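User: Could you go from structure to sequence for me? I need the amino acid at each position, not a summary. Structure tokens:
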């Protein structure tokens, strides 16, 4: 990465071609476990929801979009680290596009 653009997987994304810088997490969002003592809840369901919540904490990724395609720059991040990476990418490239955050894929 340099002020001219980003090279990822052998593809050079020129700064002028980048139209979006995103933070995504398809596992984040309002997952709330409600237990009804009269109906009960399978242990597997409870464990699955708890696992999803734990995964959501480190499932952030930073992407740039150029030419109608999204390119992942970093993944497996917590939210603070993802925001930091996106901020630094924006600074180095001097991007005029805002960083957008999504809690699930667009």
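Assistant: Here is the amino acid at each position, in order:
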């Amino acid at each position: 990465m340099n002020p001219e653009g980003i090279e990822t997987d052998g593809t050079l994304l020129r700064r002028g071609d980048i139209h979006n810088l995103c933070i995504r997490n398809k596992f984040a969002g309002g997952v709330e476990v409600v237990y009804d003592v009269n109906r009960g809840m399978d242990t597997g369901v409870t464990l699955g929801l708890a696992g999803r919540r734990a995964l959501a904490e480190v499932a952030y990724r930073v992407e740039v979009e150029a030419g109608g395609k999204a390119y992942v720059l970093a993944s497996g991040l917590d939210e603070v680290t993802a925001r930091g990476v996106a901020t630094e990418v924006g600074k180095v490239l001097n991007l005029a596009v805002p960083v957008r955050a999504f809690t699930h894929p667009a």
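One structural detail worth keeping in mind: Residues 16 and 58 are 30 Å apart (CA to CA).
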